[in-house]
Amino acid sequence: xxxxxxIKEKAVALIFEGLSPEKVSLAVTFGVLLGIFPVLxxxxxxxxxxxxxxxxxxxxxxxxxQAVYPxxxxxxxPFIQFGRTLLGKGKTQIGAGDIMxxxxxxxxxxxxxxxxxxxxxxFFWSLLFLPVFFLIYRITxxxxxIWVKGKK
Length: 152
Hints:
Layout: H1 3-16, H2 21-35, H3 43-54, H4 58-67, H5 69-86, H6 96-105, H7 108-151
Helix pairs in contact: 2-3, 2-4, 2-7, 3-4, 5-7
């Protein structure tokens, strides 16, 4: 038997040990949704808090959170843009060049601008939270129930 396959099987068994498909699905769902939260450097703490409050598997939450990190980066600007549009603020004018210049010259107003942009992103993320939550939860739960049934 391949030694890597054996390690993989033990790791999967450790993560899912004693968990119902519902709890695993809940952990995956929160890991994805908190992992795409549009404020950088906050997702791990949010997952830790959610895991503690909801008694979810912390390892699974953090693995999913880290797995969707590229998605967080891809969705950051669209979340901000849609949030601004829905609140009637129009498109953002901050570009990569502006960010570099502000950081280079220590422009303090840049940080307030970024904070405001993130608020627009959080607004849009919060509108998506419930519908996307139920969608991801139902899909992962259905998949996990089929997977568990196939393992018996």
